[in-house]
Amino acid sequence: MLYSILNSGGHIDFVDIIMHILATLTVIFIVLPFHELAHGFVANKLGDDTAKRAGRLTFNPFQHIDPMGSLCLLLVGFGWAQPVPVNMYKLKNPKRDMALVALAGPAANIIAAFVGCILEVCWSWFLAVNFGDTIWFQAVDAFFGYYVSVNIGLAVFNLIPLPPLDGSKILGAFLPEDLYQKQLMNEQKLSWILVILVMTNIVDKIMALPTALLTTLLYTVAMLPFTLF
Known about the structure:
Mean pLDDT: 89
Order of helices and strands: HHHHHHHHHH
Radius of gyration: 19 Å
Low-confidence stretches: none
Number of strands: 0
Largest sheet: none
Number of helices: 10
């Protein structure tokens, strides 16, 4: 995303860039740990204590951050943390429970995005009423906008049903057993499809509609109190 801003060809707004960087760093140091903690927490509740024994049930970002994944998130909007270890064979119902563990990560991003929507709507309403449109109002508004955008992008990206993304494990719960086993055996080969989609920018087109719909939904719900009252 930062790469796109710097190569847009238009006027470079340095305040905008700073807000983008701050929003992404917030995601890296707070939300990505929340994402991974959610995976580990659900796995632990379903019978697999691997993440707990590895010390990964924590908000400590330094237990979760992956340097390369963080750099990619900052530059292009797609990134990752160190995956929480999960032993599916310790789960009570491996096929179903792996889907629930996988779903917890994107759900954490959606929750984080919704909190950002609420804060952005409250900020916009409060300052617009009391102080009007100022550069500081615009800067903080841009911060929340980028924060929400990054989280929604991560949630939608992770729901793509291709390995190693969470969506592939969610899909697995709905596959017949023979196809599920083939998926597990061919994860490395299938992951190359994702690489090709990312490198050819097809993934952006795949994500465009669900990202827009989810963004609209979260902002609409966040604005309900102001719309109704």
